[in-house]
Amino acid sequence: MKNATLKAVLRWTLAFCLGSVLAQAGSSALATEITQLRTERADDGVYLSAQVKFELPAVVEDALTKGIAMVFVAEADIYRGRWYWTDKRVASASRSMRLAFQPLTRRWRVNIAAGAIGNVAGLRATLNQNYDTLPEALSAIQRVTRWKIADLAEVDADAAHRLEFRFRLDLSQLPRPFQIGVAGQRDWAIAAEEEQRLQLEPANAAGGGKEVAK
C-alpha cells in the first residue's frame, strides 16, 4: 500500500510539473483574510477566536482528491511592550490542522493537534472529525474557536501587550517529491497574518465549552 501511494504521488508530481498547472505561475494568488479576531480572558488563561477566509485553489483541491493531505498551521504570539528595549515575547502557541480525503468512504477527515504534525503514525491529534463535503471540512479549519494561547500568569494585567496571529498552508508537510513541483507557485500561497493590541474581553459564561484542541 505504501509503495502504491508513493508511486501515485510521484506520478501526480510529474504530471504537475509537466502539465498546464506550471503555466499558471504568473497568475495571482487568491486572497487570504483574517477576520473577527478577538481574545478573551478566562480563569485559566487567554483564549483566541478568529475566522480565516480563503478559497481553496483548484490545484490544491486536485491534489487533495488524489490523496495528498494538506496541513494548515495557526500560530499566535503575545508580546509585552518595553519602552527601553524591543518587546518581549511572553507566550507562544501553535496548532496544526491536517485535511485529507478518504477515497474508500468518499469523506473528508480533519485532524487538529497542538504544535506540529509530523506524520500519520506520529499524529498527536486531540480532535478528529469526518465530514461529508469539502466545504464542511474547510469550515472547521477556517474557524478558530476559543483556542487557549497563554496561561493567565503569562500576561501582566498592568502592562501593554500586542498579539500576532498567523495562518498558512504548510508546504513543508507535503511529500518531499511533491514539494519540488509546488515551490514558488503562488497558487499554493495560502497565508495571512494580523497584528493588534491585545484586548482581553471577559469570558462569556454562556458561550459554551472550551475547544478540545489547545
Number of helices: 4
Strand content: 35-45%
Classify the secondary structure makeup into a structural class.
Answer: alpha+beta
- Identify the overall geometry: elongated
Main sheet strand line-up: 6-5-4-3-8-9
On the 0 to 100 scale, the average pLDDT is: 81
Describe the protein's architecture and organization:
With 214 residues, the chain is of the alpha+beta class. It has one domain (2-23, 32-202). The chain contains four helices and ten strands; from the N terminus they run αββαββββαββαββ. A six-stranded antiparallel β-sheet has the order 6-5-4-3-8-9. The chain has a four-stranded mixed β-sheet with strand order 7-2-1-10. Helix 1 (2-18) packs parallel to helix 4 (176-182). Residues 17-29 and 205-210 have low confidence and may be disordered.
Key traits:
214 residues, alpha+beta, six-stranded antiparallel β-sheet, four-stranded mixed β-sheet, 10 strands, elongated
How are the elements arranged and paired?
Elements: H1 2-18, E1 33-42, E2 45-53, H2 58-65, E3 70-80, E4 88-102, E5 107-114, E6 125-131, H3 134-142, E7 143-150, E8 161-169, H4 176-182, E9 191-197, E10 200-202
Parallel strand pairs: 1-10
Antiparallel strand pairs: 1-2, 2-7, 3-4, 3-8, 4-5, 5-6, 8-9
Helix pairs in contact: 1-4
Short description:
By secondary structure, the chain is of the alpha+beta class.
